[in-house]
Every structure is written in C-alpha cells, then in structure tokens.
Amino acid sequence: MIDSIPEGHYAVATSGAKTYAYGCMTRVGITPPPVTITADDKRLKAGKPAPDPFLLAAECLGFDAKKCVVFEDSPSGIKAGVASGATVIAVCTSHERAQIENCGAHFLVENMDKVRCEPVEIDGKLQLKFTIVE
C-alpha cells in the first residue's frame, strides 16, 4: 500500500529510537520517508500515548492532523492517534484484537492487506481515499 501514497503525503511516527526504526524499515525494504519522527526526536515534548509524535509528523508534512489517517498496532499508539484528532485505523499485527479493539480506533483491520489507498483529485487538490476491503 505504501507505494500507492504519493511522496510527501506520508510519515512514520514511532516509539522506537532512530537507529532501531531506520534499521527495521530498511530490513523490510521500506525507504524511511523524509518525515520520520522517532522517540529520540528532540522536538518531542512527550511520546505516545500523547499525540505529540503524530502532531509533529502532520506539521512537518504541512497538514492538519485532523485531515490525516494514522495506522497503528499498539494501544498507546492508537490512543495517541485518536488524541491527535486523526482518523485511526488499528491493525492487528503486534497485538491481539482484544488488546486494541477498545482503544478508540475508528476502524480495525487484521492486516494492511485489508486497506487500499487511491490518490484522487478533488477541487484541484490531491487527496487520499482509503478503502477497507473484506
């Protein structure tokens, strides 16, 4: 799915340190995006479950967090995403459904294979349309 999102329209906001986060992304073939917010980012006042990582990522991208979509797999991350005002899609990849289903996410999917992203132009502006498939 990440390949369907235009550059400059996504970020990574993680509770991991920079070295760990970059290593994990590289190992699975993801080039870390220019906006990658890690736990050791000096601009952060607080980490997850505070909304700060998502608010900073949205700001760096030039977007209002309320117009962003957060994909999260942990209870603290889901709570942080919800607190940021973003739409949150919880993904059952590192925690069981029972551990994350009551954390406030707007949607819950088993894995990222269930999500599609389509860039669309509306009133001359690029927007992303996300669809959850069964």
Automatic annotation (TrEMBL):
GO molecular function: sugar-phosphatase activity
Domain of life: Eukaryota
This protein's name: HAD-like protein
Organism: Ceriporiopsis subvermispora (strain B) (White-rot fungus)
